[in-house]
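Ticket #4471: complex job returned nothing on first submit. Input attached below:
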Amino acid sequence: DAGVIQSPRHEVTEMGQEVTLRCKPISGHDYLFWYRQTMMRGLELLIYFNNNVPIDDSGMPEDRFSAKMPNASFSTLKIQPSEPRDSAVYFCASSLEGVGTEAFFGQGTRLTVV
Amino acid sequence: AQSVTQPDIHITVSEGASLELRCNYSYGATPYLFWYVQSPGQGLQLLLKYFSGDTLVQGIKGFEAEFKRSQSSFNLRKPSVHWSDAAEYFCAVAAPSGGGADGLTFGKGTHLIIQP
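Support reply: We reran it on our side without changes. The output follows.
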């Protein structure tokens, strides 16, 4: 397996625009996590899914953020409208089972909102 | 809610010297404990994890960590560092659960610099 695949690797957008980040988890993994990494706040869990169902979205900062997982092999994180403070590296991770199994991380999407 | 403290933002170690990165956690019981490493521009890779049992756990790349319940610590060690160990290191915790799953709560990270 190629690992967790995220796209794009880099995204630069203007404030107010919609941004969609994509993630393909490792095949067979039942859990998918979205994290955000900033200098100020470090790595924060935004939301996670189990079998395509959102389990905990308490980390999603605002209603401008939404995440979907329409099938086992694809998830999106959308920001609409984007703001400069959303600039960060967004990581997707997947794991075979829950917290007791290793989470494999993608290489991240570096988002810059100008 | 659980929290993780990595008191050292930066650590500089000479190549070949020993290394210890500190991690303290706050949680009502014994959480699951992890150490991840992040190389520049890369995602995170799991070095090792502790769930229960032997408090000294071995990981990849020659790393080990020791869980000390009395100190709420899970420090990472390596007897002899290599230049390739230069990276960002994250300690993380998760609440043990039987049914559901929680994501990881990360510390702010320790940036490891290796001097030649």
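The mean pLDDT of chain A is 93. Closing as resolved unless it happens again.
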